[in-house]
C-alpha cells in the first residue's frame, strides 16, 4: 500500500501539522490502495503563506523564464507518463488503455495548447497613444480539482496560473489524490521556485472551505459539482475573491432525420466513455421520430456489447465508477428511471461476473420526457436517456430546458441547420457532427454549468487582472 501523507509546501515535502489519515480505495477491487492525510487550518495557512511569499518575485519574472520552466515540466510529464497513467487508473478506475491515451493525453494536449497560446500572448496593449492596458497576475490562486479527469483539470488550472505569474495552492480530490501528488513531484523536478506551486490534500468542508474563505487567496478555480460550486461561491463572497467554476452538465445530443447513420451508435459510445463520468457527456439523446426506433436499438446494442471490467485489464472496456458513494447514487437514479421510462438495456446491480468493485451496467432508457428525474439530474454514470422530437423548434426547446449549459451536440448533414441550431443552444460548447474541438479551444459553460473558460488564451486570461495606465509615454 502506498503512503502519501506528506504535502508539498514551499518547495519541500512536509508532514501534516496533525495526523488525519484517509484511505484511498481502488474502485476496481474496493480495497485500500493508499493512505493520505487530510490537512487542517494550519496546513492550509502554511501553503497559502508560502504562495503569498513567493508571489512578489514570481510575478516579476519574465515570460521567457516561465515558459522555460513549463517546457521543462512538459519533458518531465512525458518521461513519467506511465507512472501517471498507473496512478489515475488505480485511484479512479479508468481502464489502463484509456488512462494512457486520454487521461494522460489530455494533460499533454493542454500543456501544448498553453505553450502555443503563451508564446504570442500580449500582456500589454496600447489603448490610445498615451494610455496602456496591462494584464497582470491576480495573485495567490486556490485550485480545487475533481477525480474524474484528474490531469485534465489540474493542468487546465495550474499551467495558466503559473504561466501568467500567479502562485498556487492545489487541492486535488481526496478520492483520487495520487495523480495530484505525482504532479507535485513533476513540478519540483521541473525546477519551479519554492512557493510558486504548493499541494495539500483535504476534503471540501475542510481544506476546500478554508481555501475558499482565506483572506490571502485572491482567486479560486474549482471544477466539480454544481452543489459544491455554490458552496465555494458563498464561502468566497466575504472576501470578494474571483471565483472561476466549471460545474455539471446534462448535454443534449440532437440527432436530426438526415444525420449520419452511425450517429446514435457513436453518441452512446461517447456517453459511456470514462464510465459516464464526464461533465460534457451527451447523456440526453434527442432523436427525430423518423429515426427514433433505429436509435433506441443502436444505443441498446452498444450498451449490451460494452464490456465492463477492472481498470488494470487491457482493452477498450469501461471500468468501475469512482466510489461507493457514486455507485449508490447511480443505482438510485437507475431505479428512479425504471419507474419513469422504458428500460431497454442495463439496469440495477453489477454486470454479470463482477461481485466486487463499483461496476455499473451501461444503461439505456427510452421514451423519456424531459421533465423526468433522469433527464434533469446529472447522473454521472453510464446512463443514457433517449427523447423523441418532431421539429427543430421542439429539439432546441428540449435541449435548452435544463439548469445546465456546458456542451450540446448536433448531428445533421444540413450545414445551414447545423449552424442555426448551434447558435440557439444555450451552452458554452456545441460539438457538431463528431468534429472535436481544437487545441486551446475555450472550455466552460452557461447557467449552472459555471462561469469562466479554460484552455489556451482564454484560460490565461482567467488568471489576469486588467490595469489601465494613463500618461504612458510613447516607446
From TrEMBL:
Position of the signal peptide: none
Keyword match Electron transport: no
Domain Aldehyde dehydrogenase: 13-469
GO molecular function: aldehyde dehydrogenase (NAD+) activity
InterPro entries listed in its UniProt record: Ald_DH/histidinol_DH, Ald_DH_C, Ald_DH_CS_CYS, Ald_DH_N, Aldehyde_DH_dom
Keywords, in A-Z order: Oxidoreductase
Catalytic activity: an aldehyde + NAD(+) + H2O = a carboxylate + NADH + 2 H(+)
EC numbers: 1.2.1.3
Protein origin, superkingdom: Bacteria
Record-annotated membrane-spanning stretches: none
Keyword Oxidoreductase carried by entry: yes
Family: Belongs to the aldehyde dehydrogenase family.
Record-given protein name: aldehyde dehydrogenase (NAD(+))
Amino acid at each position: 500500500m502506498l503512503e502519501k501523507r506528506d504535502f508539498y509546501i514551499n518547495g519541500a515535502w512536509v508532514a501534516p501539522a496533525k495526523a488525519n489519515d484517509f484511505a484511498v480505495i481502488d474502485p476496481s477491487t474496493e480495497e485500500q490502495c493508499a493512505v493520505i492525510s487530510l490537512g487542517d487550518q494550519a496546513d492550509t495557512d502554511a501553503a497559502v503563506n508560502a504562495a503569498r511569499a513567493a508571489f512578489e518575485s514570481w510575478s516579476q519574472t519574465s515570460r521567457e523564464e516561465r515558459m522555460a520552466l513549463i517546457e521543462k515540466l512538459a519533458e518531465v510529464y512525458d518521461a513519467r507518463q506511465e507512472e501517471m497513467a498507473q496512478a489515475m487508473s488505480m485511484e479512479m478506475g479508468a481502464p489502463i488503455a484509456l488512462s494512457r491515451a486520454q487521461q494522460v493525453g489530455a494533460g499533454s494536449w493542454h500543456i501544448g495548447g498553453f505553450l502555443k497560446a503563451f508564446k504570442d500572448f500580449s500582456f500589454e496593449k496600447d489603448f490610445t497613444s498615451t494610455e496602456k492596458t496591462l494584464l497582470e497576475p491576480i495573485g495567490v490562486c486556490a485550485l480545487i480539482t475533481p477525480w474524474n479527469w484528474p490531469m485534465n483539470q489540474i493542468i487546465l488550472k495550474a499551467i495558466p496560473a503559473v504561466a501568467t505569474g500567479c502562485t498556487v495552492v492545489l487541492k486535488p480530490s481526496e478520492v483520487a489524490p495520487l495523480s495530484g501528488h505525482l504532479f507535485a513531484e513533476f513540478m519540483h523536478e521541473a525546477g519551479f521556485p519554492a512557493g510558486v506551486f504548493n499541494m495539500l490534500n483535504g476534503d471540501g468542508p475542510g481544506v476546500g472551505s478554508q481555501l475558499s474563505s482565506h483572506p490571502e487567496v485572491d482567486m479560486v478555480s474549482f471544477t466539480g459539482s454544481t452543489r459544491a460550486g455554490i458552496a465555494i461561491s458563498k464561502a468566497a463572497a466575504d472576501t470578494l475573491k474571483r471565483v472561476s467554476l466549471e460545474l455539471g452538465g446534462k448535454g443534449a445530443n440532437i440527432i436530426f432525420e438526415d444525420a449520419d447513420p452511425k450517429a446514435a451508435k457513436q453518441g452512446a459510445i461517447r456517453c459511456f466513455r470514462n464510465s459516464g463520468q464526464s461533465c460534457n457527456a451527451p447523456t440526453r439523446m434527442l432523436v427525430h421520430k423518423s429515426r427514433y426506433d433505429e436509435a433506441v436499438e443502436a444505443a441498446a446494442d452498444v450498451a449490451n456489447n460494452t464490456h465492463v471490467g477492472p481498470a488494470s485489464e487491457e482493452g477498450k472496456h469501461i471500468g468501475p465508477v469512482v466510489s461507493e458513494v457514486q455507485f449508490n447514487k447511480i443505482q438510485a437514479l437507475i431505479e428512479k428511471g425504471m419507474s419513469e421510462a422504458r428500460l431497454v438495456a442495463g439496469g440495477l446491480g453489477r454486470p454479470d461476473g463482477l461481485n466486487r468493485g463499483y461496476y455499473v451496467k451501461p444503461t439505456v432508457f427510452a421514451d423519456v420526457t424531459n421533465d423526468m428525474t433522469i433527464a434533469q439530474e446529472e447522473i454521472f454514470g453510464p446512463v443514457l436517456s433517449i427523447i423523441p422530437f418532431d421539429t427543430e423548434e421542439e429539439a432546441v426547446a428540449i435541449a435548452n430546458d435544463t439548469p445546465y449549459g456546458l456542451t450540446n451536440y448536433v448531428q445533421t448533414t444540413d450545414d445551414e441547420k447545423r449552424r442555426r441550431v448551434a447558435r440557439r443552444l444555450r451552452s458554452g460548447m456545441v460539438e457538431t457532427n463528431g468534429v472535436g474541438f481544437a487545441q486551446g479551444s475555450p472550455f466552460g459553460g452557461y447557467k449552472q454549468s459555471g462561469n469562466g473558460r479554460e484552455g489556451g488564451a482564454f484560460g490565461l486570461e482567467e488568471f489576469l487582472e486588467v490595469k489601465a495606465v494613463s500618461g504612458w509615454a510613447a516607446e
